[in-house]
Write a structure and sequence with these properties.
The chain is of the alpha/beta class. Helix content is 27%, strand content 20%. It has 2 domains: 2-24 and 322-407, Immunoglobulin-like; 38-316, TIM Barrel. It binds alpha-D-galactopyranose.
Length: 418
């Protein structure tokens, strides 16, 4: 998208802090959802048309490109993997035309590749695409998934809810499904969409609060639409998440929906590199899970490099979510502690090109000078204040250093062992 052109950061002036550099991200395996989950999801590329063969192709690509080693190691099936009806004993079945060797076989293949395996279901009678939902079968389905070797379960909320459903009854259902999933497999990652039911309503916050008490991640923003401008999607998702930072922390994350780089077949976003970097910037600052939903082989080397950007990943996986901080005219600075410094996302929320200026003390830095890394250009600069000129909807992502934990207004979370 053109109006999300790479940010030009101007007027950065001053001396680099000794010994500070862009840190790299460990390729080691992370404990399940202690950090926001990273991986791949089928939805925007395939809708319900995924098959055993196409999934394995995407999985092999995750490994061969180094995405898996960078942390993108979940391969998650979305809606459409199952048979249209349950078996006589009520058990879920996979679609044998799509998965001739079966889901347990696929899970084992992915595990053998060093990957993890995720699956999709819905809380009501039907999934959003009218496949059998889990209503009346929570414990049974939880045991089925554990028996198949599933590491991650996403539970949706559309597709047919029981009569008289309220935010309160739905919350109990999601809590109960989560308990069944954990009883069947204490290590499972539980991802759900309860808050979507209440978006824009007074009960929204209570559904997020409840989700944070029993799930590992929960959707706080609507589905992305390829028919909408990238800037609208990215910035409205940022707004949906900004005030929810207190609910996020190790093992519990606000989920902004999927990353849509590259070129999809079912839902072609085709945003281009600069908008994709903006999406990554917002998702990283908000500590959202990073689930790529595209045809992976269509990614250009530059798009792959953006997804693997070590500083962006460090920001995403830093252990906390940003909060709204300060504004200068139409420019908003959103920040959090990350990488031993302060990760600052600058966004022009206006409708025309705008300038913004922030003193270090406005950003929470008490020293007279600081250094900064631009996450996307890799350039390091030193300065006594940050001045930016951004086109409408344009973003920039910086990490400011020379600011110890005591000197930063926001808490610096030290990287945890991976
Ligand atoms: C809902 C969810 C999406 C996707 C589809 C599948 O719209 O929000 O993420 O899972 O259902 O039908």
């Amino acid at each position: 998208m053109k109006n999300l052109a790479r940010a030009s950061i101007v007027a950065l002036a001053m001396a680099l802090a000794a010994g500070m550099s862009i840190s790299s991200v460990s390729a080691a395996v992370r404990p399940l959802s202690q950090h926001p989950v990273m991986g791949y999801n089928t939805w925007y590329q395939f809708r319900t048309g995924m098959t055993q063969q196409t999934i394995l192709k995407q999985a092999k690509y995750l490994v061969s490109t180094g995405l898996a080693a960078t942390g993108y190691d979940y391969v998650n099936l979305d809606d459409g993997w199952m048979a249209r009806e349950r078996a006589r004993d009520g058990a879920l079945r996979w679609d044998v035309a799509k998965f001739p060797k079966g889901i347990p076989w696929l899970a084992a293949r992915l595990h053998a590749m060093g990957l993890k395996f995720g699956i999709y279901e819905a809380i009501g009678q039907r999934t959003c695409q009218h496949f059998p939902g889990s209503w009346g079968h929570y414990a049974q389905d939880a045991k089925t998934f554990a028996g198949w070797g599933v590491d991650f379960v996403k539970i949706d909320e559309c597709g047919g809810l029981p009569a008289k459903t309220t935010a309160s009854t739905l919350t109990s259902d999601f809590r109960s499904y989560g308990a069944d999933l954990r009883a069947a497999d204490p290590e499972v990652v539980y991802s759900e969409e309860l808050p979507i039911y209440s978006m824009g309503q007074p009960s929204f916050l209570s559904t997020v609060r409840a989700s944070a008490s029993f799930a590992n991640m929960w959707r706080v923003a609507p589905d992305e639409k390829y028919t909408q401008p990238a800037s609208y999607t990215i910035l409205s998702h940022l707004a949906d998440d900004l005030d929810l930072n207190s609910f996020a922390g190790p093992c519990r994350w606000n989920d902004l929906d999927m990353l849509v780089p590259g070129r999809q077949t079912a839902m072609p976003f085709d945003w281009g590199l600069q908008a994709e970097e903006s999406q990554l910037s917002v998702w990283a600052e908000e500590a959202s899970p990073l689930l790529i939903s595209t045809d992976l082989p269509t990614l250009t080397p530059a798009e792959l490099a953006a997804l693997k950007n070590p500083l962006m990943i460090t920001i995403d996986e830093s252990g906390s979510q940003a909060q709204k901080a300060v504004t200068s005219g139409h420019i908003e600075a959103v920040m959090k502690g990350a990488d031993g410094g302060l990760a600052v996302l600058l966004v022009n929320l206006g409708t025309a090109t705008a300038n913004g200026h922030f003193t270090l003390s406005q950003l929470g830095i008490t020293t007279a000078r600081a250094s900064g890394d631009n996450v996307w250009t890799g350039k390091s600069t030193t300065f006594s204040g940050v001045s930016v000129r951004l086109a409408a909807n344009q973003t920039a992502l910086l990490v400011l250093k020379n600011c110890s934990a005591a000197e930063c207004r926001v808490r610096v979370i030290h990287k945890q062992k991976r």
